Amino acid sequence: MVAKTDPTVAAGDADITARREAFYARADTQHLAPLWTRLKALVPKLPVHQLVPHVWHYDDLRPHVMESARQISAAEAERRVMILENPSLRGTSQVTNTLYAGLQLIMPGEVAPAHRHTQSALRFIVEGSGAYTAVDGEKTIMQPGDFVITPSWTWHHHGHEGAGPMVWLDGLDIPLCTFFGSTFREDHDQAEAPVERPLGDAMARFGSGLLPVGHVAKNLNSPVFNYPWARTREALHVLSKAGAPDAHTGHWMRYVNPVDGGWAMPTMATMVRLLPAGFATQPYRSSDSMVFTTVEGRGELRVADQVFALGPRDIAVVPGWMPYTLHAQDDWALFSYSDRVAQEKLGLWREARG
Ligand code: GTQ
């Protein structure tokens, strides 16, 4: 039954605001607040966030990244990284609400010392060759376009036995771990953690269309921890000849954990797409804010009413639920990462075409 008289109105409209404010003040002394003044903001119809779309052109970043090596060694810095901050989140080390992005530089002969942390890290190699990362007892030599995984709580260090500077994009779920209050780190007692298996061991065991019989997963990540660009590129080009690209997303593939067919990492979705020269996508949006980088080719990214030209090694961030389109000038290969895996596991992820 609906009450015939509303006691809040019965006292007289003129007093109502003052009476409520006085009530809020009394409740406030007990660290209590009314929901109804905040409900629409707390539970909005559509995602509300401060993020803005942005593009970092590698040519503009590179001099600063290179200068970092003249300012500090990898050993002293522990990780010599220039952080990419969303322009609306300056000072937070966030590229999105849940993700971090940075450009890490290592010079020949340097070692970035071994540590481990609960945050998961991905590396997407931007330039150079000959550097390695050692993860959980195995080294891998990195090449531009390779996607490399550092699972949560695994020992890792980086080194460079080749020539010339080596730069990669670091993607970590740092803000997500901070939000959950689940951030832990530990330093190894040696700069280089023990390497126990030969180069290529993980690829042979897990990345060759085979799995060791009786294999039991060690953690929630793909045991293939380096997905080399040469193989990814070949796959994209072969499939692009076999059929038309998806109208909204292009030829879009995800990096897969061969053990269970799921995502390669437990919090971050890593994907790669090829857009044939001249192809333009129809608008697409999803609830995961996404970081993009161009591997090869160039094109135009439109987000809301902004237009960004993206060339090789440029990095972009597209806020969740903002429609975007991609228009390829030449065959355009784009890597991306987002928190889609975490959103899917929590039943939150949405997408819309058009
Ligand atoms: O390479 O372990 O960009 O721990 C930030 C934190 C890289 C790393 C980053 C890290 C690392």
> What is the SS-derived class?
alpha+beta
CATH H level, superfamily name: Jelly Rolls
| CATH architecture group name | Sandwich
At the first level of CATH, the class is Mainly Beta
| Adjacency order of strands in the biggest sheet | 1-19-16-21-14-13
Query: Main β-sheet, in a few words?
Result: 6 strands, antiparallel
Which residue ranges are poorly predicted, with pLDDT under 50 across at least 5 consecutive positions? none
Number of strands: 22
At CATH level 3, the topology is Jelly Rolls
Q: In percent, how helical is the residue content?
A: 10-25%
Number of domains: 1
Q: Estimate what percentage of residues fall within beta strands.
A: 25-35%
Unique bound compounds: 2,5-dihydroxybenzoic acid
Rg over CA atoms, rounded to whole Å, is 24 Å
Q: Averaged pLDDT, please?
A: 96
Shape: globular
Number of helices: 9
What would the keywords be for this entry?
354 residues, 6-stranded antiparallel β-sheet, 9 helices, 21% helix
Overview of the molecule:
- The protein is globular and about 80 Å long.
- It has helices at 7-10, 13-28, 39-42, 58-71, 74-77, 174-180, 201-206, 229-242, 340-345, and strands at residues 54-56, 81-83, 100-106, 111-117, 121-127, 131-135, 138-141, 147-150, 156-160, 166-172, 185-187, 226-227, 251-254, 269-275, 284-286, 290-296, 299-303, 306-310, 315-318, 324-328, 332-338, 351-353.
- The protein has a 6-stranded antiparallel β-sheet with strand order 1-19-16-21-14-13. A 6-stranded antiparallel β-sheet has the order 2-3-10-5-8-12. Strands 7-6-9-4-11 form a 5-stranded antiparallel β-sheet.
- A hairpin with a 2-residue loop joins strand 6 and strand 7 (138-141).
- It is α+β, with helices and mostly antiparallel strands and 354 residues long.
- It has one domain: Sandwich (Jelly Rolls), CATH 2.60.120.10.
- The chain binds 2,5-dihydroxybenzoic acid.
- Residues 79, 81, 102, 104, 117, 121, 156, 170, 172 line the site of 2,5-dihydroxybenzoic acid (GTQ).
